[in-house]
Structure formats: structure tokens, C-alpha cells
Amino acid sequence: MANTPYPQSYYAASANPVPPRPALQGEVETDVCIIGAGYTGLSSALFLLENGFKVSIVEAAKVGFGASGRNGGQIVNSYSRDIDVIERTVGPKQAQLLGHMAFEGGRIIRERVAKYNIQCDLKDGGVFAALTSKQMGHLESQKRLWERFGHNQLELMDQKRIREVVACDSYVGGMLDMSGGHIHPLNLALGEAAAVESLGGIIYEQTPAVRIERGANPVVHTPQGKVRAKFIIVAGNAYLGNLVPELAAKSMPCGTQVITTEPLGEELARTLLPQDYCVEDCNYLLDYYRLTSDKRLIFGGGVVYGARDPANIEAIIRPKMLKTFPQLKNVKIDYAWTGNFLLTLSRLPQVGRIGDNIYYSQGCSGHGVTYTHLAGKVLAEALRGQAERFDAFAGLPHYPFPGGQMLRVPFSAIGAWYYSLRDRLGF
């Protein structure tokens, strides 16, 4: 069977060493079979193992191969649609539950890093940067909203204050969230995988799930084996394909592009981001960036609907970087890659159960780093019979993309064009 390596990203090049994990051969039995060794699968596995379940994970490529090992590495709280939108959609009771969970993912990441001594360059502090007074107004109301749910590590920044944090003249202000922050995302996944194995969990790499046999005792079939389980957790997200057809219609893989500079040196790096916070702007199609531990700048942005890989990633992202930091015009780009995340029409995660024993969580819509860690806990609770928090997510309404799978890409691209036009015109 073909061996799928990591894409040539900065993260893969600077990953911590890991043991080889062979593919599944033959038949195994377990309590829970998890499909996908990204953050959702790994987080679920850890919570289940800590509660006495026997867990096996099948992974089509390698641990953290998908979005978990390719993202911008930013710990951003809440969901892709904020709590006020959820409140208008589902009412105050459900929104109250989801609101209190909106800041839990970041706490789970920090707990995991501390408990299992995961080396992933964890740094505190994330900045939302406003390019217009309207965006600044949104941040002011976002701060009030988050504080309603007990989230108080926030500071509004005026133009003078944000200049102390980011060497960019474009921003009129911003908000600093000290419970945000950044990590080396692939090393976080690899550290969580080692923690899973330390608790007796088994991870099979290069082992795609090709078919799920549903029923009272479900079976996950792989090219050279099968896993019999009491429960299945589907955690493939944008890399799931058509394994579960009823999930594919209501979501769409999208690509985001990331570049990494050569090392900038301590002095230049400190002038760009003196406190080493990560930053994302407030545009609909946003740019995001941060420094690595070896003082490179990672800069990402842009969305390719339908997850095609663009021919020249540097040509798309470098101009965005130079608009933010013109002082980097002579700096070389060492790495450029793309990764897929899963978009839903509502921009809210899809969580649910198929039959009695197949659970799933997907569709983080760009807010995956924190949400997936929370999802693992919520899924594990549901398997233990504590379903209140699971039900709060499962009750969120979801719709198929208009025009079905054939037209979801053009419709979404038109929508994105409209919003990016609004960003540029300052509406």
C-alpha cells in the first residue's frame, strides 16, 4: 500500500521525532474505533482512555496529516460564528451551554501540554486586529459578549497600543486575548498521540477506513484489516471523502495557504511582534501570522473553495505579507503549503450520532484548533452517557449547500467575493 508522507511544510521539517506506526493487518476488537488521528480523534481518544475505554485509531496517512498538522498554529477562542449568532439561531438555553464551552478548548490544550509534557512551543496571547472603525466596534461588542460568559482575559487596544504589539501601520486598534496564543500544531498532535499510546491506545497509520459496516456491532473495514467496535467516532473532517455520505452533503472542504520565511534573526523578529503574540485581522477572508520558536514568520490567508491546491502559494500569500510588513521585501520564503479545513453553510460545527453507535464531529469552519479539543471531551462524555453538552451541539441546525455538491463551490466563492469586497470597501 502507498505510504503517504507529510506535505513539505515548516511543521513537518521541524517535527519532533516519532516512532514508526505500522498499518493495521488483520482483525482487532476494541471498545471505540476512531477514524482519523487529528485533534478531534486524538482528543476523543485521550478523554476515553482516561475514563477506562479501550481505543484504537485508524489514520489514512500519519498523525496530524490534515488540518491539525498544517494550520496557522493559533489558539483562538469561541466558534466561527460567535455566541450571539448561536443565541439568535437556537435560543438562550442552548446558547448558554455553548457559550460556556466556547473558551474550554484552549484550556484543554494547556492542560494536555502540562499533563503530558508536550513540547510544542506554547506561547500565550492572541491579537484580533481591526482595519476599520466598524471592525473595532465589532471587537468592542465581542468583548462585552465574551465577558457575559465569564471570559475576562481581554484588553481593547487603541491605535497607539496595537502599534506596541504589531509593527504594522494598517490597524486602527484591536483586542488582546491572553487566553489565546500559539503552538507548533504538528508537535501538539504528535505529543497527544504519544499520550494516547502511553495510556494503552493504539494508532494505526497508513490505514484508511474504506467502509463502515453499520449495525449493533459496527465494523470499520481497512485495506488489510478490520476493527470491530462497540462505538465508532468519525473524526476525518475535510479528509473524510464520501465514507459517510450523509455528512458529505452538508459540508465542503476548503483550502487555506500558509508560507514561512527564512529565520529573521532575533532583532528583526522582535521589531515585528515584540511580545511574540499571534495576530489575525478582522476581515471575512482574514490574514493570520505569528513567529516560530526559531524566529521565522508564519503567514497565512486566503481560501480556495473545493480544496484545490493552487499552483503558486507564495504568489498568493507573499503580497499579503508585504502589505502587512513591507520591511520583509527582501526576505526569502522557505516553505509554502496548503491544508484543508471543512466549511459548513452555517459556519458552525456539525456534531451528531448515526444510529446508536456512530458518533461524529466535523466542520469547524476555520476555528478548529480549540474546538476540536473541546469536541473530543464532549464526544467522550456522550459515550459515557452524559449527553447534555453533546446534545447542545447536535441540536444546531445544518443545511445542505444550495445546488448540491456540484454547485457548492461556485456559490461559496461568490459569497466570499462579496464579503471580501465589503472588507476592501470598509463596509
Automatic annotation (TrEMBL):
Signal peptide: none annotated. GO terms for cellular component: cytoplasm. GO terms for molecular function: oxidoreductase activity. It comes from Pseudomonas juntendi. It comes from the Bacteria. Pfam families: DAO (PF01266). InterPro entries: FAD-dep_OxRdtase, FAD/NAD-bd_sf. This is FAD-binding oxidoreductase. The lineage of its organism: Bacteria, Pseudomonadati, Pseudomonadota, Gammaproteobacteria, Pseudomonadales.
